[in-house]
Design a protein that fits this description.
This protein is of the alpha+beta class. Strands 1, 2, 3, 4 and 5 form a five-stranded antiparallel β-sheet that branches. The longest helix has 38 residues.
Length: 181
């Protein structure tokens, strides 16, 4: 019962023995996750795990900081060029950068903005908040306590704005933003 409309995922894990992590979306919405190892020309399938949508979104939220760490240097490498463009177009100062950032976001198609915003709200959503609260309740460090409280407050507000923005971009994408007269 694999969903053939979406490609599966295969990630090479090891050369000795050759091992691949695979994931496939099932038609009922669950994710099948497992490994395949090749030994003496024979493919051996490891234990298969079926993740329901709640587990999948929690896994994605948990992986979000790792994804950010993997991409942040690439983002930073492009920062100087983007800042220069903002200054060339709109002058100096943070207002120029803010204006250019808004203009750049307008160029992203609505369907991709919906996806990006959903990923954003998932990465800071309830499961992540629960992990931060659990850490807050167990820390003895005043410094960490302050950092966690600030992060929870910031993410709570960003979550609401992210959901609202995703709803608006979805309305643009589907045509629901059209006002009938």
């Amino acid at each position: 019962m694999v969903d053939n409309e979406r490609p599966g995922l295969e990630i090479f894990l090891s050369a000795a023995p050759p091992t691949i992590l695979f994931a496939e979306r099932l038609r009922d919405g669950r994710i099948a996750l497992g490994t395949r190892t090749t030994v003496d020309g024979q493919i051996r399938v490891g234990e298969l795990h079926l993740l329901d949508s709640t587990a999948s979104t929690e896994l994605a939220a948990w992986l979000a900081p790792t994804v950010e760490e993997a991409w942040i240097e690439t983002v930073r490498e492009r920062q100087e060029e983007s800042l220069q463009t903002a200054h060339d177009l709109y002058g100096e100062g943070p207002e120029a950068v803010d204006r250019f950032a808004s203009e750049v976001l307008r160029e992203i198609p609505a369907d991709l903005m919906v996806r990006a915003l959903i990923l954003l709200v998932n990465s800071i959503g309830p499961a992540t908040r629960e992990r931060l609260v659990a850490r807050l309740n167990s820390t003895d460090s005043a410094r960490e306590d302050t950092w966690l409280r600030q992060r929870l407050s910031q993410e709570h507000e960003a979550f609401a704005f992210g959901v609202s923005a995703a709803a608006l971009f979805e309305a643009l994408r589907t045509g629901a933003a059209e006002v009938e007269e």
